[in-house]
Design a protein that fits this description.
Strand content: over 45%
Number of strands: 19
Radius of gyration: 22 Å
Structural class: alpha/beta
Largest sheet: 17 strands, mixed
Distance between the termini: 47 Å
Order of helices and strands: HHHHEEHEEEEEEEEEEEEEEEEE
């Protein structure tokens, strides 16, 4: 029996069981909560590649499937077993009228740009929502958040020629239904930026073509990640650790790019790259390119694509 048959068979059985239980009214099915099961996919793939008999693999796969279903039902039960409170509102998940009555929260934040700042860093810890960076501002940062359960804590530290921005999502409620909150951000284009993002089930769309990016690190769960880089920084290091994610990166046509990493059940679209070894790719003329973008990727059940644009 093929390893992929055991893996995908277990995934489909698990997903179908959850949907069936939802229709029967046993549990509430939520794609957001389902996306949090991605570590079990890694465990399941580890099971199917073990050098043991297929019978043992199937048994271990079923045990993993049962554990994931229990974990899911335990989390969802927590939502329906007690009432939650958020910003003065009290509601029960089963009371549709109260949920619909809740109003959106909103935040705006800005920090003036201090003369002499040459380097800036941004650290963000966020669970769910749509996170977008487009355009620039004369401020150091401008951010606008809209949506239910989307409160953030902002902190800025400035010293010498460096500013550090810390943004942390402080939702008082982890919603079992789809989160439609949005977080829009603009950054100053003067400093050289370092980014460190820890994101969960989020859509992450950052157009960094007008910014100088030296380092960018993303740790993600079930996330759709779209990045675009420009020509302003000679060398950029990108590190992405994802699970059950789609990753799309756009780089300048003139830039040299290298990709290194480990992928499990990932589809890769690296047109124009040369394969140097297992898990290592480079564009032609990378060593002599005036601009270099180095990407290190660890992905599980992901699609990964790099495109070039002027």
């Amino acid at each position: 029996m093929k390893q992929s048959n055991i893996f995908w068979g277990s995934v489909l059985i698990g997903m179908g069981s959850l949907m069936l239980f939802d229709k029967l009214g046993i549990i509430h099915f939520s794609w957001w909560e389902f996306s949090r099961l991605w570590p079990f996919l890694i465990i399941l793939w580890g099971v199917v590649i073990l050098p043991v008999k297929n019978g043992i693999k199937i048994l271990l796969a079923l045990l993993t499937l049962v554990a994931s279903l229990w974990f899911y039902s335990y989390r969802v039960d927590n939502y329906s077993s007690y009432r939650k409170h958020y910003n003065g509102w009290s509601f029960d998940q089963n009371d549709d009228d109260e949920v619909e009555a809740l109003s959106e929260t909103g935040q705006s934040f800005s920090e003036p740009f201090a003369e002499g700042i040459e380097n800036a860093s941004l650290e963000m810890d966020a669970a769910a929502g749509n996170f977008i960076l487009q355009g620039s501002t004369s401020e150091l940062i401008y951010a606008d958040s809209r949506g239910f359960g989307s409160d953030f804590i902002f902190k800025v530290e400035t010293g010498d020629n460096h500013s550090k921005i810390t943004i942390k999502q402080q939702s008082g409620v982890k919603m079992p239904f789809k989160n439609h909150s949005s977080f829009n951000m603009m950054l100053n284009t003067t400093p050289v930026w370092d980014f460190d993002f820890d994101i969960g089930g989020a859509n992450f769309d950052f157009d960094l073509s007008n910014h100088k990016v030296e380092n960018l690190k993303i740790d993600g769960g079930a996330a759709a990640i779209d990045l675009k880089f420009g020509t302003l920084q000679p060398e950029t290091d990108v590190r992405i650790n994802t699970g059950a994610s789609s990753v799309n990166i756009t780089i300048p046509t003139s830039a040299g790019c290298s990709v290194e990493g480990n992928t499990v059940l990932s589809s890769r679209d690296l047109e124009g790259f040369n394969r140097l070894a297992k898990g290592r790719y480079e564009t032609p003329g990378f060593d002599t390119a005036q601009q270099k973008i180095r990407i290190k990727l660890d992905a599980a059940v992901s699609s990964f694509k790099i495109a070039k644009a002027e």
